[in-house]
Design a protein that fits this description.
about 70% helix; 15 helices; Farnesyl Diphosphate Synthase; homodimer; mainly alpha; globular
Chain lengths: ~290, ~290
């Protein structure tokens, strides 16, 4: 099976698990608002990474599925809150009206809060031996030194031209944190040792940086039809991007270097890492 | 030591632990916005309940302190998001401008998200044997079948006259969930058995209902100087309250009956429950 087929298999598993979440006890309107954004397509890369990492370290995919759902819920919550009028003020996301446009701002805030809370509820219901460690990694990644640090820097530095190190910090927080945690969580759920978790961090952070740089490059040079959205928006809106900081040519080299580092990190005997390494390569050459 | 002195002792411990939280890795502005609302006074009843419950069941207060901080962070986050223009649109909280008035709406949303995430980060760093169960209870209480269910019903039913059962549902979610979870969490951290946890639920839910009914009554009949806020706002704004539903006289009887149920629930040999029982009585007769 090639990387695309395997990814598609993982994605189907994640989609089915998300679709089946009962959100027991949630009022109908809240459930509707949460599901609207959670089941809005997307690559499910974060969820797939939990499954792939767990399998690579010899674990059971059934232990990993709740965590795959959790990281997708955390990702969905962050997008709902990001799109709010007082944040990025976006009205469209993947071709559909954003959550607050459909449900109103108050419900959109609650839907985001609900998805974040439910992510922890689902993880905390898991009784696999590595579950507490995995949950802890997710909390850190979603938290004030991870994703929220990136979002805060992004907001407070808007309209400035930060240097390369600061852009790196923003990307590490906004994007890489939530691509690193699923890898470490997947390893932890399989009972991996400290060295393997550390390798997962190097892999995830470099994959995350490359993923964001490629995203920025696609907005500059991508195919609008394939991407399914208007391109060139980053430049137009003065967004903080890697190519804007170092130039497109250097950005391409940097992304490739990150992917090399990511792949190298997983060359350890404890892992069956072929898929994760191919996935890193695939991420570099994606066109959408 | 009487109940007031003991409560004040617990409160000081909670305050000091909150004050000492490092929020490591958080950008300055985010940390400032979180601390602004977290360290804004308040009774710290939720945090004190974790400590009291843990001690009542024979546990160590040092295991309970991270959870006391966590429940206060969850409470603070819920108030920040509740006060937002698209929710209750409040500009003052305990005599100080609300978070979004000081830091702007975007940062206030992030500060709330940060406090919720950090609550889980702090709980997940705790390695006491009952920690995972305690965290799970907190997640459920803060989640879509708990506090967020209450808030959703409150928003979607605004301006209507719901029946007694619906008001009970709203109060159970908005108030009682986050008074019940600290009790169960405190018991769990002390290694209490299932029966004791079940007793904690009956105690917490009834304490929570009574607490909210008394809150509603104080808004009707309290002393504005003691309360430190304008009273009569609930009626003026057509808020959903217990006295509005059943009348003030019946509401007083209902609150007293809840407190009797709460106290009775803790009459089990496994617990040193004198303080928790006196606290319930104290809650009924509070004047602020």
């Amino acid at each position: 099976m090639n990387v695309k087929q395997q990814l598609s298999l993982y994605k189907t598993m994640v989609e089915q698990a998300l679709e089946a979440l009962p959100f027991e006890g949630a009022p109908d309107r809240l459930k509707e608002a949460m599901r609207y954004s959670l089941l809005n397509g997307g690559k499910r890369l974060r969820g797939c990474l939990v499954l792939a990492a767990c399998e690579a370290a010899g674990g059971n995919i059934s232990d990993a599925l709740p965590f795959a759902c959790a990281v997708e819920m955390i990702h969905a919550y962050s997008l709902i809150h990001d799109d709010l009028p007082s944040m990025d003020n976006d009205t469209l996301r993947r071709g559909k009206p954003t959550n607050h446009i459909v449900f109103g701002e108050g419900m959109a805030i609650l839907a985001g809060d609900g998805l974040l809370s439910h992510a922890f509820e689902v993880m905390a219901a898991c009784r696999a031996p590595g579950a507490f460690t995995a949950l802890s990694m997710m909390a850190k990644a979603a938290g004030v030194s991870g994703m929220l640090a990136g979002q805060t820097l992004d907001i407070t530095l808007e309209g400035t031209q930060p240097d390369r190190d600061t852009v790196r910090q923003i990307h590490l927080g906004k994007t890489a944190a939530l691509l690193t945690a699923p890898v470490i969580a997947g390893f932890a759920l399989a009972g991996a040792d400290e060295d393997t978790l550390a390798a997962g961090r190097v892999y995830g952070e470099n994959l995350g940086l490359a993923f964001q740089i490629v995203d920025d490059l696609l907005d500059l040079e991508g195919d609008a039809a394939l991407m399914g959205k208007t391109l060139g928006k980053d430049v137009q809106e003065g967004k903080i991007t890697w190519p804007a900081c170092v130039g497109a040519q250097q950005a391409k080299q940097d992304a490739a270097a990150c992917i090399e580092k990511a792949k190298a990190a997983l060359n350890i005997p404890a892992l069956h890492s072929a898929f994760l390494q191919e996935l890193a390569e695939y991420t570099l050459h994606r066109v959408q």
